[in-house]
Amino acid sequence: MKDRYLAAIDLGSSAIRLAVGQISSGPDKREIIALIGAEEVPSAGISKGSIRSLDDATSAVSSVLDRVERAVGAPVSDVYVGIGGLHCQIRPSKGVIGVSRPDGEIHEEDYRRVLENASTVSNPANFEVLHRLPQRFTVDDQPGVKDPVGMQGVRLEAEVCVIQAMASHVRNLTQAVLRTNVDVTGLVFAPLASAESVLTLRQRELGAALVNIGASTTSVAVFEDGELLHAAVIPIGSDHITSDIAIGLRTSLEVAEQCKRHFASATPEAVSQYDMIDLRELGAPESEHVSPRFISEISSARVEEIFEKVEEELRKINRSGLLPAGVVLAGGGAKLNGIVEIAKRVLRLPASMSPGIQVQTPLLEIARDPAYATVLGLMVWGFEDERNATSARTSNMSGSSGFFKKVGSPIKKIFKSFIP
Questions:
Q1: Please, which of 45, 180, 208, 272 could form a disulfide with 325 given CB 3.0 to 4.6 Å?
Q2: Within the chain, which residue ranges are assigned CATH 3.30.420.40?
Q3: Rounded to two decimals, what is the model's pTM?
């Protein structure tokens, strides 16, 4: 079998990252994916997850495409695109239908119809549905059903997590990619993709949260019993730490960013109060000596605020301090020294840094980099999505019902019509 390539792109507020995986047959004849290329370029035309200049964003996407294509020696023809930010909504919804068969047996068609009914009920006109994630079903008066197909009943209800994105936001993001002559294979809610690749199956079963700290936002995805229980996007990210440092030191954002990267800690008590650094060595126009301890105190205040917001989200679903598998941190903002200790203290939960995704790759440093968690999660999501589609075709030919268990996966769309 000829090897195939699969690509994913994350259009973040600070960086645009692109990853390419190679799909091949493993020793047991099952398909596997190996990360063979990943690059990033500074974001242009993107602010707070939104396209502010389509031309600049398209140029940045074209730049990262060129770099990756040179690195892997193959063209990128289509990509999975991550979508997140404040333009996304996560809504619990319910769907109710009557079972269509006279004998009362629930078939795949009923499974699909009840999910569509749930998303139609909660879908505003200016939003696109990205995912319909079934959580549990009720067959007649029997609640808590995980898989209703094959059961007998008259009435089928579904509790569904519907993830939507503003239609204009979807169109702008996809146009930035399509204008580079690359097709969009599918749109994926970025926190969901990164959580399902970073968190293990056992963590998702026991109860865990992925906190992805980006440049302008922090996303939270909470799992329990293997299903998405809650997701939210908080409008605070690592750029806010940089801004706080710039204000506190009365210096430029560029110098403040260097201070954050090299000297800041979320635990100022661990930093010596006697050490000093010269801002001129970091790019400031004049010599000024400041204490890393003071920089860390500024950073710590904002980090605590981020986790207090995360704690508010956990309280909304009555999971404050009640996730046995704890919290896993990802995103570029999670690289701040001491941030794991602050997460443990504020959330009162076990906390750890993302271990990276488990795929074959010579790029181990990138695979373990928390900043690449989203784009690598998108790549793995796309791989699983295509494997499920292959299984679906096989299942349909053999009469199996396997395909319909994956109705909650990303809805494929044709995006070419978005280009005027």
A1: 208
A2: 4-86+167-199+357-406, 233-353
A3: 0.86
